[in-house]
Amino acid sequence: MKTAIIGFSGSGKTELFRALAGPQVLGNRAMVKVPEPRLEPLSALFKPKKVTCTEIEYLDLPGGGTQALGNRLLSDIRGADCLLAVLDAFSGTQDPLKQQDSIEAELMVSDMAVIEKKLDKILEDKKKARHLYNLEEEEMLLKAQEILEQEMPLRIDRNLAMNEVLKGFAFLSAKPVLYAWNLAENRLADFQVPSEETNMGHIAFSARLEREMSELESEQELHEFMQDLGISGSVLDRVIAGTYLLLGLITFLTAGDKEVRAWPLRSGQNAWEAAGVIHSDIQKGFIRAEVLAWNDFLRCKTFKKARELGMLRLEGKEYIVRDGDVITFRFNV
Ligand SMILES: Nc1nc2c(ncn2[C@@H]2O[C@H](COP(=O)(O)OP(=O)(O)O)[C@@H](O)[C@H]2O)c(=O)[nH]1
Ligand SMILES: [Mg+2]
Asked: Is 13 a pocket residue for ligand 1 (Cβ < 6 Å)?
């Protein structure tokens, strides 16, 4: 999972990146561990050699001066699954809503250019009476163009944004976006973040505060600091929770003596798809999934007990995985 951090120069992108990546990270790419408290009780039971959590890759991109993107960065942004867009709401020099409008406009203009070029190409092919072009592609592109002409980002149309035919274009305005409002410290407690829209979320943070928090010596100090300011959780927690919500992700777990591990899955995906997240062999040879719901695990504490109580369920490929399911896959190699 890859997230590109975008926004105007000076909005606090690099500060946010450092808060996510930790001070020791050099360069502009970092794998950030997704906090997963459910790994601990499982590890206590299995005492595995390895405990692995999910990671999200964050990419810090230099701001393009007067632009939030800048052409040479587009290819980096295209490769991202979602965008984290930082808004300067601390300095008072630029209205954050205007920044948001500019970012949206840049994303849409970029997509529009790609679409026009491709449609021109299709037109040429038609003139030559070549029927090599893909009719569905043309249809989808025209639909996308229509949305953009109404000054709407492609992400508002979920089906279009996820469409297989359009995937290869990696349209920027089709990507889910999480806006991070970089607020002045004193506004953090009572700021109301805008409500969610399709494929768009918002969180608030203060880059200055995050930096101060990272310099505190003890947990106790940190706790008091946060209480005084009326904030809960770190920006890392908020960004990750925001990203999971935005992408509709849930977590399932696998547990054994070798490894206890958390895996990301899109909400609504089934056991067969979950198997594929782990390994294509497990998916190919899928026989069944033994599933223990998280609350049942907490109640039973051991798999033996869970089996005795009939809480360990045998599920087939079609079973829709739930957040926190502990799954053992049975498969043929
Ligand atoms: N006072 C204050 N300064 C900030 C805040 N966020 C960023 N800055 C400062 O603004 C400048 C630009 O921040 P940076 O993260 O490098 O912005 P970028 O260009 O988006 O990567 C740096 O000097 C930061 O210390 C903030 O929340 N409060
Ligand atoms: Mg920077």
From this structure: yes
Q: What are phi and psi of 172, to 5 degrees?
A: -70, -40
Please tell me the total count of domains within the chain: 1
Q: What is the dihedral of CA 241, 159, 77, 3, to 10 degrees?
A: 20
Boundaries of domain holding 285: 268-331
Query: pLDDT digit string (tens) for 269-321?
Result: 999 999 999 999 999 999 999 999 999 999 998 999 999 999 999 999 999 99
> For residues 312 and 328, is the Cβ–Cβ distance under 8 A?
no
Pocket probe for ligand 1: among 11, 15, 213, the residue whose CB has the most ligand atoms within 8 Å is 15
- 169 lies in a domain? no
Residue 313: inside a domain? yes
In the 8-state DSSP scheme, what is residue 72? G
Indicate whether residue 182 lines ligand 1 (CB < 6 A): yes
Asked whether 262 and 255 are in contact (CB, 8 A), the reply is no
7 compared with 74, residue with greater pLDDT: 7
